[in-house]
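Q: Protein A?
A:
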Amino acid sequence: MSRWSTRFFTALLSAAMLCALTLPAAAQEMMTEIQTLDFGLFSLRDNAAQHTVAVAASDNSYVADPAFVVATPPQRAEYFLEGFTPGTQIFVNVDDGDLTLGGGGGTAVFSSITYTVSPGTIIADGAGEATVFVGATLRTIGDSNVYPSGAYSDSIDITFSW
């Protein structure tokens, strides 16, 4: 079973994700990032309870609790995979995480980010290609503290294996 592991920096409020990809040296399989995952630009009216904003992997639609005022809608991530043997099943794993102000474990945290992948079963087509979408749900802490304005980010791992 082959495996790629890529580290992503998810940023929200004003920055997009940056991608660094590590491939096996002799691999002909390739991944191209078409769209980064981005929670968009928003403000939060109330943090007295947990609230969520989610972007769907399946169709790029989003749902935000009324506590979120969305100025720029979230965008799902899109990846184009190529160079596979036709009919190869490709597995995707995304580690859940938290976002912090400025990244690296700051104190203002959006917690319980969960990721979804579409399609549910990924099979390389007759040309050895597949398109994968990643959506996510972002949850506030709900502790009544105010989130400072700024870019929130953290590192997550996305692993493609086959």
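Q: Protein B?
A:
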Amino acid sequence: MKTPPDIHAFENRLFDEWQRRSLRCGDGGEIAYDGLLYRGAFAYDSGYWIRLPGNEAAGWQHAPQRILILTKDLNDTEAWDIRAETGRQNHSGADHILITAPFYKNLMRWVYGILHTSPGIPFPAFDAINRQDLYQPFYDHAPIARVNCKKQPGGASLPNPTLRAFLTRYRDLLARQINAYDAHIILCCGGSDLIKDFVRETLLPDLRRINDWIYRSPSTRQTLINSYHPSYRGMTHRDLYTSLLTAYHSAL
């Protein structure tokens, strides 16, 4: 499927459907919008960083490698538009750009490494890219869509049975959203294979395992990375990055 030219209008219509179903199912009326990340100006207001819409749709259409990041849900009690996220620490002051959350630091490193390697070019070593002044500006402009499988606000954790129930209840809506981006690389973060299996069952039935981290669809040539959650504490940031990029590069 080719990405709709007005992708944000498509997203917003889909979220209207999501909200109506959420109310019918007793899951509440709050929906955290997500999708193609805004690439307009940054704004700092009342202690909070946000990103404004920009030319992200055109950038996505012409990008040689488009990355879709699939995460479980929003770790917050209130819904907000994830498309406007910056990863920057709030209440830091407009002159201080700080990336402190492991979730964002790992995502930014992973995206930098993935988009800086190819069959003939080894991925950059962790020590070479473990610099905010390198990975953060790159991530700020990279073609990225970020989608939560569960749109309702959540908390610090989402049990797998709950995630499975939401994947079932909103199966068609989530599949339509994922399919609309036509991403070259789908990065599944956490969920103990549930997110990866959802993609295979609904969109890429010919997905083949290449190694412990990497799957590929021969028909669409899309690559799926089955990763840990970016906040995973069972490995160091260095080992997470190196393991993911080693597996990715070996599968190219």
